[in-house]
Amino acid sequence: MSVEASGPTRSTCPYCGVGCGVLATRNDDGNVSIAGDPDHPANYGRLCSKGAALGETFDLEGRLLRPLIDGKPAPWDRALDMVAERFTQAIETHGPDSVAFYLSGQLLTEDYYVANKLMKGFVGSANIDTNSRLCMASSVAGHRRAFGADTVPGTYADLELANLIVLVGSNLAWCHPVLYQRIVAARTRRPQMKLVVIDPRRTETASAADLHLKIAPDGDVALFLGLLAHLGKTGSFSDDYIRRSVGGLDEALASACAHDLEDISTRTGLSHRDLQQFYELFATTERVVTVYSQGVNQSVSGTDKVNAIINCHLATGRIGRAGMGPFSVTGQPNAMGGREVGGLSNMLAAHMQIECATDRDRVQRFWASPTIATRPGLKAVDLFDAVADGRIRALWIMGTNPAVSMPDADAVKAAIANCPFTVVSDAMTDTDTVRLADIRLPSLTWGEKDGTVTNSERRISRQRTVLPTPGLARADWWQMTQIARRMGFVEAFDYEGPADIFREHAALSAFENAGERDFDIGACARITTSEYDAMRPFQWPAPDVIAPTRQTRFFGDGRFYTSDGRACAVAVTAPPGATAPDRLLRVNTGRIRDQWHTMTRTGKAPRLNAHIAEPFCEIHPADAAFRDISPAQIVKLSNERGEILIRALITDRVRRGEVFVPMHWNDQFANRARIGTLIEALADPVSGQPALKAGLATLSRV
Ligand code: SF4
């Protein structure tokens, strides 16, 4: 398709879950200028450094522009025939559960929908998981336990209306910068707004807080149990609200009251004074929003942390009203869209439950599919274990780099390399994962592809084509459709474009749904292709009409998606303190301001690389002195899984006994700096989300 130079195209940033609107203008010289979309309700014209540098990331260097079989160019038909044949062979010989898809929060909702439909309804397995499992699976599980559905109650506007914002495990200033800018602007307008940051590191965000609680790793459950007990003791519960709308609070409170302040102090590493200050601030402020991100989710107690937070909002009735509520912010541009179409191995499409026979029957009838997966499939960590031990015989990875991003990354790399048949669809030709594939399929990337994404406040927004299709690259939904047809499912995958897929997805959300499910965008089932092309950002639910300006908030009526309509306060228990054994340091991982994931896109922009040019290890001065480590020295972090070499950054931003290493660098950008190689593949037992912030390693001079 040829795209001529023209006025700006409205699209959505491909990076974090804020989901900012972007105006992309293709200039006469072929370059693309980027500006924030002043009319987009997520950002009102703002962009962060990553979004603003998008125009510097379009060059075709390193792009995969034609299919490759065993590293050699091949026509599309031959590559597709081979993929369909090998998947069909595996299914016929070893059964449907011998194949798996591993997808990405970078995919568009339409891509996710087709993949989920093919795997669950036509292959008959639920072995379809995604890197969103690494991002927000604990929030999904916590929402489902508390609300009966995976629903984010509030909107971004609630953060501007709050009088207290509590950020838990979130360096919002670097990881969701535009949302942080909105908070900063609101604090300037209303200086009475307070900010509490709960984080083991003194991050950029923590430095701006009224109160920074430098909590011990995984001390969050204990902290919020202590808060619930304090709210109970000080008469801060909303008794009327609890009577009408909350079940299970007695058990949750009993669990909380099992800990006195001294015990909470020991488990969190926080002083009585800091604890009291936080608890009193929360108890006496009606408008509180608690925002949580990867420091909460990426933990073996991630789901319990989410519920410990939600319990405090339920007990005080601070949910579903202006300026209050628990708020999960997702890391990826379409982590939420993937959830909407069931792109996790334990979900069905349209937020229906795979464990529910009625839901399975409803989805199967809608799809007119020959089968339907009857039980949850493998979650990310288990999925790659199954690849390693030979249960998975054919694997298709799309738009993600698990050889870098998964815990125990070297083991994942070896598993993929030894899988009998691996397909990778990617825009790049040579990532750590792509180079392991038997077949590489060239995908479109941001600016070339077309579809929808959903941000952290449930806002569905369009990504649109700005540039011509390079080489023989094709959309991910198209690739899967071609495979489905070759597997014999022609009619069910007869889509001509993303608008067809979106209409079907919307129709499924409303199918036999008399208001009992939260996710309903039935109005979109009736839109024409030109209306889809012109679609303005809007929030779900939208059962009757697409209303771009309406801000939707859930649970204002005190009704939830549980069987009795009441929310569930979950009785959680505090895990034992997470102290590292002798001589080992606890390894925290996370993002830096100007890079994204494994850098395949942001690594192309010189000004983003200029922010922090190389991988580093934040080390407390006492830990550095003990090991005779000097500033900027190259140091070794190692354990039984491997070792990495990185530059020492000696700082009291981290707690003693803990180090921080960014997650981005990989073999493409820095030799031996993949931090994922050192992280044990432990996961939350409820959500399956890996504990990516809980590594243990030895630190030494080189
Ligand atoms: Fe993109 Fe997130 Fe930055 Fe917005 S805040 S421009 S969505 S990276």
TrEMBL record:
Signal peptide: none annotated. One of its GO terms (biological process) is cellular respiration. One of its GO terms (molecular function) is molybdopterin cofactor binding. It comes from the Bacteria. GO terms for cellular component: membrane; oxidoreductase complex. Residues 6-62 form the 4Fe-4S Mo/W bis-MGD-type domain. Its cofactor is [4Fe-4S] cluster; Mo-bis(molybdopterin guanine dinucleotide). Keywords: 4Fe-4S, Iron, Iron-sulfur, Metal-binding, Molybdenum, Nitrate assimilation, Oxidoreductase. Belongs to the prokaryotic molybdopterin-containing oxidoreductase family. NasA/NapA/NarB subfamily. This is Nitrate reductase. The chain holds residues 1 to 702 of 887 of the full protein.
